Structure prediction request, 292 residues.
Amino acid sequence: MTRVAFIGLGLMGKPMAKRLLRCGHELTVHNRSRGPVEELEALGARAASSPEEAARSSEVTFLMLPDSKDVRDVVLGEGGLMGGLKSGSIVVDCSTVSPMTEVEIASKLAGLGVSYLDAPVTGGTVAAEAGTLTFMVGGEREAFERVRPLLECMGRRIEYMGPSGSGQLTKLANQIAVAGTLLAAAEALVFAVKVGLDPRKVLDVIGSGAAGSWQLNNLGPKMIERDYSPGFKVEHLRKDLRIVLEVAERTGVPLFGASTVHQLTKVLSAMGFDKHGTQAVFEVLLRFSHEA
Ligand SMILES: NC(=O)c1ccc[n+]([C@@H]2O[C@H](COP(=O)([O-])OP(=O)(O)OC[C@H]3O[C@@H](n4cnc5c(N)ncnc54)[C@H](OP(=O)(O)O)[C@@H]3O)[C@@H](O)[C@H]2O)c1
Prediction:
């Protein structure tokens, strides 16, 4: 049993924290709003009023927060982790944030004798609930080996990718592929609707062939039902592609698909879809289609 803290109990963090409890670990939780904290308390977790308090009692602290600024505030800000972390402890950031932020925080915490791993995930809320996430981890290998049993409570595939920042860089490659297949799925299904085909039948047929993808097979049915309830929010895809393009700019890689989808996420945000699932790309394409 390990003394674990978990900060950020949103769509992903809450089910991940529940899995740590189910594995028998002693868990302390903190979140900006109270609701999910009370839910975890009812299951046996302890509540902390600040990240600093959460870190004080834990050997390993997990973060699952929206963006780079949130991670920076929670670790380095007032009442942040830095005030409570003990030498020899480990912080594992599972959020998708800038690799540059991760390298900077890792070097600051190293000065306190604390290891910092970037460990973003893929698989969405379904995998978070089932404990079948994929973890892509960057940082010191020794710290990775120490937290591996905890990651195995929440994931099925746990991969060490290299030094600090490598986990986030792998996740950005993942998001480039996600953006392309999301747009392809939405375009194919809007096209099917507009040419008068039964989109359910089309999805069934093309989803099992060469066009099949996670995006098409998991989000396609929701697109057809125009169910835009969030698994992965539009605001998070916009943030991920912003980071992708920042890194690509530094490295000179041309990213045609990711750039287009990034522009499209701005349109989705302007149309009020920020807190909806990314399958709402379908709705925008549908509304932009005109009658021939
Ligand atoms: N959803 C997915 O399918 C998915 C998949 C892979 C990776 N990710 C990544 O995982 C991260 C989290 O995603 P999510 O979907 O779980 O997001 P989310 O539902 O928006 O949850 C974020 C959580 O962080 C809390 N929070 C924000 N700032 C905080 C602070 N300063 N102190 C304490 N708590 C704070 C929020 O509290 P409130 O309750 O007050 O809002 C919320 O509970 C993002 O980086 C996302 O890109 C998401």
User: Anything to note?
Assistant: The chain has a mean pLDDT of 97. Residues 166-194 form the longest helix (29 residues). The two ends are 64 Å apart (CA to CA).
